[in-house]
Amino acid sequence: MDLITPDFGLFFWMMVSFTLVFFILKKFAWKPIVHALKERERNIEEGIKMAEKAREDMSTMKEQSEKIISEARLEMESIIKKGHETKQQMIEEAKEKAKTESSKLIDSAREKIEEEKITALEDIKNQISVISIDIAEKILREQLADENVQKNLMEKHLKEFKVN
Amino acid sequence: MKHFLKIFLLAALFTAAGTADCYGGPSQADGNKKGFDPGSFIFDHIADSYCWHIFSMGDKHYSVPLPVILYSRENGLSIFMSSRFDHGYSSYNGYKIENNGPNEGKIVKVNDNGETLTGEPLPLDFSITKNVLALFFSVIVIFLIFITLGKSYKKSPLSVPKGLQSFFEPIIVFVIDDIAKPAIGEEKHRRFLPYLLTLFFFIWINNMLGLIPIFPMGANVTGNISVTMGLALTSLIAVNFSGNKKYWQHLYNPPGIPAFLKFPLPLMQVIEIVGVFTKPFVLMIRLFANITAGHIITMGFFCLIFIFGERGAVFGYSISVISVLFGIFITFLEFLVALIQAYVFTLLTSLFIGSAVSDEH
């Protein structure tokens, strides 16, 4: 068999083999392999994109959270301030109220005391008059029991009477 | 190393009794013992054969007979084992293996006395020769490898490649990303991937199996002109059937060339059309020559042992050390060549396809 003359039989079997290999591998090997490689490539690309996106999301989220925190802080401060104000106001109001209340109480007490005083004075006056009459009676009775005293007294009164 | 020792031992067995093949025939056996003939020894290895010679002991040849399939108008289809030819000593069923003349080594028709019928056309020969068997074996190997691969990719396309995948995936990706994509273009290469991948691995695996001298491997498949012709033909078909309008226009009316070169004498057209065929022709010759050369060199180093061995045993043994070392070196080189030739063939084919499908000229 010559080295450089193509041989029909071998050529024929070669073409049969190659065609067979081509069509079978095309269906059972290259299709799934190329598909898988492309799929993997796509998957990796997507993964990278997703990571990028996640990173972006994270940074925006961080920003947002910071914003929220600062807003919350501001709100807190305003709330505290407001609370402080309300407290102050309430204290003021309470003070005011207490003042008016106490002055009212004092006034009514004073009125009552005045009334009491008046009644007490009336009472004392009555008592005094009764007691003084009693005392006077007793004194008179004692003094008048002695003749000299009666006489002196008479004289004295008479002297007074004379003056008048 | 262990493998190489085995391989070389087997290779040594091949060489045990000099030339001995399936169609050596009476002319060689009858002659005087001529001594070791490296030329025919190497040639017998390189060439195709009707049986697979394993080794010889003295005058006994041990070989695997292969089926011979012949068709001729007179005799019709005849199928028989090549052992019927008795290593070229006898004719069978009106056929014999010619042992001299222009048809040496081919199966010719004979008359009842066993003489060659001259002037008769040769029968159509579909025999499963040594190379065809080796080709079939490598086809089986290719199927086993790549159908398994395809299955595992189908099963889990997104998982990390492992086992067979981790070996072949970089090569597949190399063919796709470094051969097909740059040569044909990002958007058009996809259509040609099955062909280019098949081409690459077909050539590569055949080259590699050709370097392992254990039956049924070690035949010079990709170093046979018929096989490379087949491959070149597929390349020719792939390029011309994918050619777009621009490609054909370029062929029949090459732009940017002075009109007097195109008319009245269609010089450029002739050159262009010849070019269509020279491209695959060069591919055919390149692969054939490279692989055959590798086999010749490797065999040459082994022949040295026997050439020197005829001078004396000491010579033979001492040169065998050097021969084996060089043989190992050349085999490693051939592993590289096997890959490079597959690469070059695929790359050039994709470049031709690329220029045939490209939109700008």
Q: Can you put this structure into words, describing what you see?
A:
- The complex is a heterodimer of chains A (164) and B (361).
- Chain A has 164 residues and is mainly α.
- Chain A contains 2 helices and no strands.
- The model of chain A has no long low-confidence stretch (mean pLDDT 89).
- Chain B has 2 domains: 16-38 and 47-127, no CATH class; 131-357, no CATH class.
- Chain B has helices at 2-14, 25-30, 38-46, 130-155, 164-184, 193-210, 225-242, 245-252, 267-311, 313-357; strands at 51-57, 60-65, 67-72, 76-81, 95-97, 107-109, 124-125.
- In chain B, helix 6 (193-210) packs antiparallel against helix 10 (313-357).
- The A-B interface holds A 1-15, 17-18, 20-22, 24-26, 28-37, 39-40, 43 and B 43, 46-49, 69, 105-106, 124-129, 131-132, 135-136, 139, 142-143, 146-147, 149-151, 153-154, 157-158, 169, 172-173, 176, 190, 193-195, 197-198, 202, 224-227, 229-231, 233-234, 292.
What's a quick, concise take on this entry?
With about 160 residues, chain A is mainly alpha-helical. Chain A has helices at about 10-145, 145-164. In chain B, α3 (about 40-45) crosses α9.
Write a concise keyword list for the protein shown above:
heterodimer, A: 164 residues, mainly alpha, B: 361 residues, 2 domains, three-stranded antiparallel β-sheet, two-stranded antiparallel ribbon, 10 helices, 9% strand, globular
